[in-house]
Amino acid sequence: MIETEFKNDVFSNVMLKRHSVRHFDRSCKIDRSVLTEIVKEATTAPSSCNLQAWHFVVVDTDQGKEKLRKIFMPFNHPQLDTCSAMVVLFGDTDAFKKYRDLWQGMYEEKKITKERLDTILGTFLPIYEKADRTLLTADAMVDASLAAMQFMLDARARGFATNPIAGYDATKMALAMGLDPVRYVPVMAIAIGKPDESQKELVSTRYDVKDVLEFR
Amino acid sequence: MIETEFKNDVFSNVMLKRHSVRHFDRSCKIDRSVLTEIVKEATTAPSSCNLQAWHFVVVDTDQGKEKLRKIFMPFNHPQLDTCSAMVVLFGDTDAFKKYRDLWQGMYEEKKITKERLDTILGTFLPIYEKADRTLLTADAMVDASLAAMQFMLDARARGFATNPIAGYDATKMALAMGLDPVRYVPVMAIAIGKPDESQKELVSTRYDVKDVLEFR
């Protein structure tokens, strides 16, 4: 089972009081085992047909950060310079290639019936096998974003703060991280660390819910 | 302040024990005020440059569901037939058009300095004004997905269950919901309701975290 350590296990506080932090305490290092646990828990997120088309690259070394610095907009250098780790999240457009084995395994674990397995492999797998890059990219970005939100909430439950970042040269991100730029599409970067309490952080305004909601 | 009513306010339970539910209790109706509150809380999610490029259409009438039925894959009809509401989530590719007013308002509320306002309007707004549709769509899908994850968690904290759904004819979704199909891109649908406890639901398997995580 999943083991965890939440200093703040109050859902309403974790979710409703979250806001982005852009200045972190430079002295805070987060152990890789903790970062791994946060990713593990974040990936309990749902995904399209359970494709799990997310891929996390956690950058916590000076060398790794230097590579990011070259492609980050200067506006986002403060987060990069002060965070414990910058987590670069990609969508994996090849995720469907593991699909048959995944569902076969779920059948063997008796989680699904043979009928369900046949439906999945006969109906959904062909959709992905025939899909164009636009669809694969869109699905992967959605999957990765769902996991990203859980990553940010999980981090907060552990007493950390985060800042999701889109301001970088997306065309260079995969190569900078040593990944195949055809297979992996960058979705966002997330700075994680302890907040620098001496800095005042912006709590940004949201539109009135009536502006973004309709009933049918 | 945000008012809420969480039956289950334990973060670890809400997030780590969530799984999709595909069979709901048909007798459960969720009041529109409650659905509105869930959307309101879900949209505390972060978004690219605070664009908030999400748009929720909550379908809770027979007429609305009938429109969805015509474009949903049959595999997803059970959720549509039994859920209290099907929430169709769109990305709003025109969100940047409200951007100047939003940040101007935050400046007037003294949430940001004049310098920050000038940076935002001088650096980020032009990126969106010049952006092609691919970028606007991608950003909107990420924003909407972040809010979607919070919607599912918030629903669970209130004692409801959800199922995110991608199996529908995306080319017809905006028109079916009476929206401009150029402006609004469908991201996912989310069924919400009370679980039908007589049904055994699949808890799908996740890959080992080592398969989706690298350090740099």
TrEMBL record, chains A, B:
Residues 17-194 form the Nitroreductase domain. One of its GO terms (molecular function) is oxidoreductase activity. InterPro entries: Nitroreductase (IPR029479), Nitroreductase-like (IPR000415). CDD domains: MhqN-like (cd02137). SUPFAM superfamilies: FMN-dependent nitroreductase-like (SSF55469). Keywords: Oxidoreductase. Coiled coil: none annotated. The keyword Signal does not apply. PANTHER family: NAD(P)H NITROREDUCTASE YDGI-RELATED, NADH DEHYDROGENASE_NAD(P)H NITROREDUCTASE XCC3605-RELATED. Belongs to the nitroreductase family. This is Nitroreductase family protein. It comes from Lactobacillus mulieris.
